[in-house]
Structure formats: C-alpha cells, structure tokens
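quick one, 259 residues, struct below
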Amino acid sequence: MMAIGLMIASPAVAGEGSWTKLNTVGVGPQNRSVPSAGAVDGIIYVFGGVEDDFNEITNTFYNDIHRFNPDTSTWTELHPGGPLPSHRAFAATTSRKHAGELVIYGGSFYDPTFTEFEVFGDLWVYSVDENDWTEIQAANEGPGERNGANIWADKDKLYLFGGLTPFFLPANDLWEYDFGTNRWTELIPMFSPGSPVGRDVAYAGAAPKRGELTIYGGETLDFNTFEFVTLQDVWQLDLDTLTWEEVTPSPNKDIDIHG
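---
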C-alpha cells in the first residue's frame, strides 16, 4: 500500500492557524473514514474505519491497526496477537496514556443500503507494549450499543456520553466506567433537564481538562422531519457537580485557518 498523507494544524497565534501536509512513508491505512484514533507517548494509533464507494455501492470495513510516528512521518502496520475487535467504524475512542493503552467503545457495521445496521456495545483496550487487544467484560450492564459516542479517560475511569442507539435514537446520558471495580455507573440519565440535546459523532478532547468534559457539535435527529441535523454548539460538564453548561463562543472568536 502506498503511503498516505496527513494534515496537521499549527497552534493558533492571535486567532490564526495554518495547515501543513505531511509526506509520509511506510505502510499506512487504506482510504477510509471515521476510524478510531488516539495518541500514546506522542505516537498516533489508528484502528478500523470504513471505505464507502458510492460509485460501486459498496463499503469495506476494517479492524486493522496502524502506528504513526510524527517525528519520522512513518507509518507501521501492526499485527496484534489474540482476539481482535470486529470490523467497525464510528467507535468512541480515547487513550489511557499512563497505562499505554488505546480504548474503543461500540461503533457500527452496515451494508450499503442500510438494510443491515449493527451497533456494538463492547469495550476493548489495546496495549501498546504488548501489541494485543483485550475485551473488557464489565461486572454489570453499561450504556449498551452506541454508534459515534464520546469517551474520555481519566486515570482509572472512563466517561461516556451520548451516541446513536440501534433504534436511531440520539442519546444524551453520561456513564462512568471504573477499571478498579470493573463496573459501569450511570451518572446522568437520558433526557435529564439541563443536558445537551442527544447526539452522535460530536467532537471532544481526549481527556478531562480542569475537571471538565467538553463536546462540540455532532448530529441529532429532528423528530418532526426524521432527518439528521448538524449541530454547532459547545457544552462543558463539571465532573464535581455533574452539571452541563453551554459555552458556545461568538462567531468572532473563531480561528482563521490558512492552508
């Protein structure tokens, strides 16, 4: 497989930023969208994803994993031993940096006509040092099947928000998983007052900052038209008080990006 290119954004200075295309080498992932990606010790790991071919009306799902070293711009295809997560896209992803692990939850598999739509509710951990996957079997019931949820890691705990259920319901509940007790706890139930509207494929940071979880945008379902609507709001959750606050900035606070 020919090496593929990456784009990186430089930090904004005085409200401006810039993109740079990297010329990479090595064996990188095939063309795909919505894979899982996370960084451990400055190294980026990419798992799964799907290539939708709208001309041939086919889609190809992956469950492979690749490593990218930004210092050398080098891709490496990894070959983990043992069991693997099934082929999927839209899995929630985060990194447990102190443990050297990539974490994925859920995701989905579908056929080109969406007559088959399978949503997963499994939790997997990839060990960077051991180069293997482990499925976590929790001691109790958790969030269940979710497509495009958000997940954060904070030492021995995970926090999971939202995602799309198998019945195309955009969720807005919040869950906590504790690696020490191997148990899930529902922190904020579905449809609680003061929570963001239910959504999937929102964007979020990899880890809590200042005791807060942050989400941006995503998609929700308009129950009047039964069409998906793109969101552009920003919300933060205070982990101490378990309260959400909308913090959407004004348009003049946006960053100008130069290519």
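The mean pLDDT is 91.
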